[in-house]
Design goal:
globular, five-stranded mixed sheet, Immunoglobulin-like, alpha+beta
């Protein structure tokens, strides 16, 4: 009985902490790469915060998300998605591209606020 009570107490303590951990999660923004073009091509993001980009490659070929300004480079297989963590970002424009199709697949994060 004491072991069961200890388990219930531990679970209750863990559940009390879980909401605060979720409140600290960085905001998430989604990009889709289809027909060698990003959608949306530009995303407004908050300056001064860490954030997560979820990039879904809906094309039949691999893509390479790349941005020197964001310090990010990630190969994404066809039909897959990748999480890219960036920031915190100063206010400004941060271009990105699919390195395999730079002439078509371009976009930017636009950080503002703070």
């Amino acid at each position: 009985m004491q072991l069961h009570l200890l388990g219930v107490t531990a679970l209750a303590s863990l559940m009390a902490v879980a909401p605060s951990a979720q409140a600290d999660d960085p905001p998430t923004f989604r990009l889709t790469l289809k027909n060698h073009a990003f959608s949306p091509a530009e995303i407004d993001v908050p300056a001064g915060k860490r954030l997560v980009l979820v990039v879904h490659n809906a094309d039949d070929t691999p893509a390479e998300f790349e941005s020197r300004e964001l310090g990010a480079e990630k190969v994404i297989s066809a039909g897959r998605e990748a999480l890219i963590r960036v920031g915190p970002l100063a206010a400004g424009r941060y271009p990105f591209a699919d390195e395999f199709h730079q002439d078509q697949a371009r976009g930017a994060l636009i950080a503002a606020g703070e």
